């Protein structure tokens, strides 16, 4: 897939909708720009948040909470 885009005076380019859809970009993200010969290559970067997805799975302690005892632990003195 290739598209022709305009470069603004501030050296910005617009990523066409069909390219964003092909990359599954739903919001602005960071991208890496590389030069290969006389070609500019734009590579989407994985977001920091997505790199953390699933990292701590299984670490959380699954502890049942007795909701009837929560009210006993709340400090109502400030009300």
Automatic annotation (TrEMBL):
InterPro entries per the UniProt record, alphabetical: SpoVT-AbrB_sf
Gene3D superfamilies linked: 2.10.260.10
Protein name: SpoVT-AbrB domain-containing protein
């Amino acid at each position: 897939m290739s598209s022709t885009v305009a470069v603004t005076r501030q050296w910005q380019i617009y990523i066409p909708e069909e390219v964003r859809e092909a990359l599954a970009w739903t919001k602005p993200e960071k991208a890496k720009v590389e030069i290969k010969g006389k070609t500019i290559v734009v590579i989407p970067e994985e977001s920091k948040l997505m790199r953390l997805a699933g990292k701590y799975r299984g670490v959380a302690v699954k502890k049942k909470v007795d909701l009837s005892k929560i009210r006993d632990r709340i400090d109502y003195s400030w009300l």
